[in-house]
């Protein structure tokens, strides 16, 4: 049976010779590929063929990679299960009755099933780390600004980053080396990462490393997930690392802050899909507003409509201060909590997801419950920090991911620590 | 609970602002879900006021003419065009 990991299966060979020669790569379908259909998992963009490559895709081609298709995803990146895709859900290769996580579920499933050597995903609130954890592979959410977002179809641009998914920490770090660095077409990029060698940071040596465990990110987790998590930390301790619990009260407000900010940005970013500039027109008669509203009714799925409407509400007169302004306060608070924590520790660790992979269809009816599953990943995006998810054992035969979070632009340390988890 | 409960009329109003038509089933479903979600967002009321120390810098470059998409490429995904422009529905 097909996993439905790809929306478009088409091979694009590269003429170049580089570090990714001979490697096959799945590219998430919200990353623009010249001449290759890019749908964002949405019926709205079913026929959209970008006239240019995203910067990361140019970099893949320059590095000699072979693109093997556009990976399935939650519509416009909105979901934690890859079930909101207009092209049907992706199955988890570890257990096909379960979801692969989301929103980069196709990317992680393709790598876990060996349908691609490596993959690119994007992470707005955990969309690389969640599917990496659920499929038993490695995913890195880079520091905000490390990787160019030029050519990434925007969902919530103050939060999202493109990043690698791979079978091992070293391979994920090697792919990050290819895509990291400044880009004059993205003013938020940074000089860090220009001449990176993250792959060689995967030494497996954690002797002397100090790890903080935010209690708030462990307490609510499923028992089996907790057992695997603590066993992984004990293993790191046996290799010479030291860990202790820390308290970060702000992270308990992170999910609410994340969704208010992400939905607000989405309501603005997705305004371009009006059936005239982008998206299907439907050919409706009537005035501009009516025609747009009907094209958008038809083109967007329920989760996208839900987020656009909630974002519009949060930004509307009378509610802006209550929701959006407060969410920005929470974001600043989360950043402060992380800064304070990193004064005493090298990295922070938590389970990537508080639960094992959901059964297909299980979470669709209750959006709030699905949002709460992102509790451990969203604080990282609010604080613009780097984080990695690395496989750390199983619960009932299902993969558990360990998340390691580092200070801004300190990808080396989380890569080093994660490589020790593989030992 | 939010100051104003979310009822079907409010969902319809926001949908109009957002330019998204909804059918009646969606309006009812969203009204119920929004009440739950917004109640959860009320947790933000407990967030203290925080000094933001954003180190924002403007990233500038010279405004030089450079190669871009051709007009044809830029319009290649538009359903309807006329004389090199996007053709949209009438404005009112």
From TrEMBL, chain A:
GO terms under cellular component: glutamyl-tRNA(Gln) amidotransferase complex
The protein's Enzyme Commission number: 6.3.5.7
GO BP terms in the entry: translation
Principal EC category: ligase
Subunit structure: Heterotrimer of A, B and C subunits.
Role of this protein: Allows the formation of correctly charged Gln-tRNA(Gln) through the transamidation of misacylated Glu-tRNA(Gln) in organisms which lack glutaminyl-tRNA synthetase. The reaction takes place in the presence of glutamine and ATP through an activated gamma-phospho-Glu-tRNA(Gln).
HAMAP family: GatA
Stated name of the protein: Glutamyl-tRNA(Gln) amidotransferase subunit A
Organism: Haloferax marinisediminis
Encoding gene, per UniProt annotation: gatA
TrEMBL record, chain B:
UniProt GO MF annotations: ATP binding; glutaminyl-tRNA synthase (glutamine-hydrolyzing) activity; transferase activity
Catalysis performed (reactions): L-glutamyl-tRNA(Gln) + L-glutamine + ATP + H2O = L-glutaminyl-tRNA(Gln) + L-glutamate + ADP + phosphate + H(+); L-aspartyl-tRNA(Asn) + L-glutamine + ATP + H2O = L-asparaginyl-tRNA(Asn) + L-glutamate + ADP + phosphate + 2 H(+)
GO biological process, one term: translation
InterPro entries the record matches: Asp/Glu-ADT_sf_sub_c, GatC
EC number, UniProt record: 6.3.5.-
Enzyme class of the recorded protein, top EC level: ligase
Keyword Nucleotide-binding: yes
UniProt key word ATP-binding: yes
Oligomeric and partner information: Heterotrimer of A, B and C subunits.
Record protein name field: Aspartyl/glutamyl-tRNA(Asn/Gln) amidotransferase subunit C
High-level lineage: Archaea, Methanobacteriati, Methanobacteriota, Stenosarchaea group, Halobacteria
Designated gene of the protein: gatC
């Amino acid at each position: 049976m097909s996993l439905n990991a790809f929306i478009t299966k088409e091979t694009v060979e590269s003429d170049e010779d580089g570090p990714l020669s001979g490697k096959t790569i799945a590219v998430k379908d919200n990353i623009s590929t010249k001449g290759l259909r890019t749908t964002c998992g949405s019926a709205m963009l079913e026929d959209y063929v970008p006239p240019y490559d995203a910067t990361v895709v140019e970099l893949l081609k320059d590095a000699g990679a072979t693109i093997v298709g556009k990976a399935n995803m939650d519509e416009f990146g909105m979901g934690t299960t890859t079930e909101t895709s207009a092209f049907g859900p992706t199955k988890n290769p570890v257990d096909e009755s379960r979801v692969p996580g989301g929103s980069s579920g196709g990317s992680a499933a393709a790598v876990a099933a060996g349908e691609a050597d490596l993959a690119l995903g994007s992470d707005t609130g955990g969309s690389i780390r969640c599917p990496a954890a659920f499929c038993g592979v490695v995913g890195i959410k880079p520091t905000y600004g490390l990787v160019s977002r030029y050519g990434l179809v925007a969902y919530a641009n103050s939060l999202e980053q493109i990043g690698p998914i791979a079978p091992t920490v070293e391979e994920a770090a090697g792919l990050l080396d290819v895509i990291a660095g400044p880009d004059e077409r993205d003013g938020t990029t940074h000089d860090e990462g220009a001449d990176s060698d993250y792959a060689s940071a995967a030494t497996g040596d954690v002797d002397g490393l100090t790890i903080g465990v935010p209690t708030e990110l462990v307490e609510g987790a499923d028992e089996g997930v907790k057992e695997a998590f603590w066993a992984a930390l004990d293993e790191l301790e046996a290799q010479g690392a030291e860990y202790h619990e820390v308290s970060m009260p702000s992270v308990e407000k992170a999910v609410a802050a994340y969704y208010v900010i992400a939905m607000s940005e989405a309501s603005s970013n997705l305004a371009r899909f009006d059936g005239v500039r982008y998206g299907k027109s439907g050919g409706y008669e009537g005035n501009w507003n009516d025609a747009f509203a009907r094209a958008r009714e038809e083109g967007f799925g329920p989760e996208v409509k839900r987020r656009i409407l909630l974002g519009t509400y949060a930004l509307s007169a009378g509610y802006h201060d209550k929701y959006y302004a407060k969410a920005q306060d929470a974001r600043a608070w989360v950043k402060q909590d992380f800064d304070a924590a990193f004064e005493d520790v090298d990295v922070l660790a938590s389970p990537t997801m508080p639960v094992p992979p959901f059964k297909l269809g299980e979470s669709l009816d209750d959006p709030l419950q699905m949002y709460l599953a992102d509790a451990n990943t969203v604080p990282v995006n609010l604080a613009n920090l780097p984080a990695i998810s690395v496989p750390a054992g199983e619960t009932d035969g299902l993969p558990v991911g360990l998340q390691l979070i580092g200070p801004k632009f300190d990808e080396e340390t989380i890569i080093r620590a994660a490589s020790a988890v593989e030992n | 609970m939010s100051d104003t409960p979310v009822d079907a009329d409010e969902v319809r109003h926001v949908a109009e602002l957002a330019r998204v038509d909804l059918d009646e089933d969606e309006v009812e479903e969203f009204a119920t879900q929004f009440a739950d979600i917004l109640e959860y967002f009320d947790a933000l009321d407990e967030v203290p006021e925080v000094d933001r120390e954003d180190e924002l810098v403007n990233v500038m470059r010279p405004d030089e003419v450079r190669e871009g998409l051709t007009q044809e490429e830029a319009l290649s995904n538009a359903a309807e065009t006329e004389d090199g422009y996007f053709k949209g529905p009438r404005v009112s």
